[in-house]
Amino acid sequence: MAEYVVAAILETAEKELAKVENISETITALKEKIDKQHHRLAESCRALSKKRARVARRLAREVEEHRWVESCSIKRILPDRLRVQVEEKVPAGLARHGDRLLLVDSQGAVIEEPPASEAWAGRFPLLTGFDEETAWEGHQGRVRKNLSLAEQLKSMEQTRDIPRVDRIDVTEKSNTTIYFAGREYPVLLGEDGYTEKLARYRLLEQTLEERHGGNLQYVDLRFHDRVIVKPLEGTGEEGRS
User: Most buried of 28, 131, 155, 212, CB within 10 angstroms?
Assistant: First the structure.
């Protein structure tokens, strides 16, 4: 009898152990299935993230194609927002290229071609003297140099060291010529030493007005040791200071 009971208990134990083994196998299979699904989900998330990044870059490039946009960045803010940062181009000057009037940034890149009637003209010196046979991109190095000069002149205007500059002419590559507002004659500056040369002009300006009344062909400041004043013909003699 006891042997029968023991055998029955062992048989039951074996069945229960088989159930446990089946459950373990099921759990292992489920774990593998979950791992695979998690891996696929992670791959999908990475692919979606890359797609969103590509879309963001494409949208930023499209925004940057606008003539007034310097740069654009688009960033996703979880869970459901986008941060768009746009840097606007800053106008730095006006330039005449053939029949075109160009509003340019500090690098000489064209922002737009404004109508001559707009109020830009009073805000910047007008750069002139660019060969219209040469594409505008070929002039940008000289534009940057003379925009830097224009900024320097603007600073001197604000401290009343010089009259307002109306135009900067760059026809001659080795010489920059400026025209002051209200003065018909050009002032030749050469290639460098602008601050010192304009300081000399400021010292002579009152004398030039008193002696010639603005009736001059030009004032030549290109030389470091003298100033050449050329009166209009019939109004006086050429002078040197």
Answer: 212
